[in-house]
Design brief:
393 residues, alpha/beta, Rossmann fold, seven-stranded parallel β-sheet, 14 helices, 39% helix
Length: 393
């Protein structure tokens, strides 16, 4: 089967109305598949003010704002007009990219139509309640995710560490890898910009600890700020540069009044900002891959990250950076202090990370997913029926 015969129906709760690593990866995937001659149709909530132009044709599905996080939408239906469009499009595989109502309904439709369906895992949703004082919900969310993923022909994790976690959680009998790439034309050591540092009041010999990402509590903002407090108590000279925006901006700026907030950045400006730091500090445990970690590595920055899914598959500790037990403030501070005080150690970790980043190209990782689509379609055509669900164990 040739990729030009691929007809992919992609279902996601967020395709382009908020810019994050997951939906940017989906847009890159769609662009790559279309260039190869595949047909793709996207079913997702629509926004009058999208964060960036969508790649491919998007069919709008009904949605409402998420309570307390109105920048996100919750799909609430798969109406008849959308079902008619799906039938007219005549896909030969479904791809579910978010595990909400739309995803569950799409899986049911695929199984009713005897079409193969896969899911990609982009974040650890089951961990989110712990950041909002409701950790008792984690087992419930995990059970809901398990029900969805076990009804799919296969699920895709962005890293082997995340794939292993999904196996341990008994999410699927078939867990495969769809990795992530980095645009090395943008993210490179040469992107470092002394003028940008000067603009932010940073001297060339000052060590800058960077935070990159959406400013939301589940990114580990509390751990980041507690660790910076510990460095201040130790009197370790440093500057903090926060690259990103989000609903927790006010909380974070009050918590770290000495930090420099660069705001939302993208493209070349993002690459310059990342390359103009000296250390990336990523304490988050919710990522399944860690796009910001890979981008920092591609610019030659040393990385201190939580020992969690995603980062574990990218960083060899200690040669490329440090992996620290999640929430271990003292250990995070120790790692950052060693890089702040030892320029050569920092440069060595950055160089080793840069060499590792050379393995990650977008076309390669997207072609691997396309090959998996085709093999799953062929397997379904040969068997003639959906895979049976494994009994709970």
């Amino acid at each position: 089967m040739d990729i030009r015969h691929l007809r992919l129906a992609l279902f996601t709760g967020n395709y382009n109305y908020v810019r994050d690593g997951a939906n940017q990866a989906l847009n890159r995937l769609v662009g790559y598949l279309m260039k190869q001659g595949a047909s793709v149709r996207i079913y997702s909530p629509h926004s009058e003010t999208p964060a960036f132009p969508a790649i491919g044709e998007v069919i709008s599905v009904p949605a409402v704002p998420f309570p307390g996080r109105s920048e996100y939408c919750i799909p609430i239906a798969l109406p008849s007009r959308v079902r008619r469009d799906i039938k007219k499009f005549d896909p030969n595989i479904f791809h579910i990219a978010s595990p909400e109502y739309l995803g569950h309904r799409a899986v049911s439709l695929a199984r009713k139509s005897n079409l193969p369906v896969v899911a990609s895992v982009h974040t650890r949703f089951e961990t989110y309640p712990r950041y909002y004082g409701m950790p008792f919900l984690e087992p419930v969310i995990e059970a809901i995710l398990r029900r969805l993923y076990r009804r799919c022909d296969a699920i895709f994790a962005p890293s082997e560490s995340m794939a292993q976690l999904l196996r341990e959680q008994r999410m699927s009998y078939d867990v495969r890898i769809w990795s992530r790439g980095v645009d090395r034309n943008l993210f490179k050591p040469e992107a470092r910009d002394p003028h940008l540092r000067h603009k932010f009041g940073i001297k060339e010999d000052e060590v800058v600890i960077g935070f990159v990402g959406r400013l939301v509590m589940e990114k580990g903002l509390d751990v980041f700020s507690d660790t910076i407090d510990e460095l201040v108590r130790r009197k370790i000279p440093h500057k903090v540069l926060v690259i990103g925006e989000g609903p927790a901006r006010g909380w974070f700026s009050r918590r770290l009044p000495q930090a420099i907030f660069a705001g939302f950045q993208t493209g070349e400006s993002l690459a310059r900002a990342v390359a103009s730091t000296d250390i990336l500090f990523n304490p988050s445990v919710t990522e399944t891959f860690g796009n910001v970690t890979l981008e920092a590595m591609a610019t030659g920055r040393a990385v201190v990250a939580a020992q969690a899914t995603g980062s574990e598959s990218l960083i060899d500790d200690p040669s490329m950076g440090r992996l620290i037990r999640p929430g271990a403030i003292k250990d995070f501070a120790d790692a950052l202090q060693s890089y702040c005080e030892n320029k050569e150690l920092r440069k060595e970790a950055g160089y080793n990370g840069y060499k590792r980043s050379e393995c990650y190209g977008w076309d390669n990782v997207n072609q691997i997913l396309a090959d998996n689509y085709l093999s799953i379609i062929q397997a379904r055509q040969q068997s003639g029926q959906a895979p049976r669900l494994k009994p709970r164990s």
